[in-house]
Known about the structure:
The protein is an alpha/beta fold. It is 47% helix and 22% strand. It is built from 9 helices and 8 strands.
Amino acid sequence: MAAAIGAGLPITEASGNMIVDIGGGTTEVAVISLAGIVYAQSVRVGGDKMDEAIVQYMKRKYNMLIGERTAETVKIGIGNVYKVDDEVQTMDIKGRDLVSGTPKTMEITSTEIREAMTEPVNAIVEAVRISLEQTPPELAADIVDRGIVLAGGGAHLKNIDVLLSEETGLPVVIAEDPLSCVVLGSGMVLDQLDLLKQVAIST
């Protein structure tokens, strides 16, 4: 709810709004109408699981151990979840060779990182799809017009909006400041006591 308010969604209106908040530990999907949550789902998949997936991929494919901070740097640097053109980015990655035990550096491509993150990304797509299936038809029609709004740090993941749009057939937009939506929304609610009463009663 806080993310939706921070993203500027008209949550008090009778129309349906869908927000997908991709955080570090969880992804939360909610359909909001009349200041209440009509349907919500939370899956324990977020940025951290993507980092873990990259670590496991490097271990499995190259016998190379990297830290989760390195994995996150690679995810932010060249990670993408949907191929839109033939451009392939590369990045040097440092870790430890599990066979020799010595440090080594190797080049990794954006295609490999996309492959590494497939499982957690698919879990997020599935959560969105299930939420749409569970949404009342009248509100689902509003979401077709308004689209899905992405918030949270995971919204910065390259082409996540394109992937979700392709998978759902709906427009997908990224909130103006996805990382700060929850904080901004919480602040707005505390400033507007009428809105706080509406939200507090309905949730």
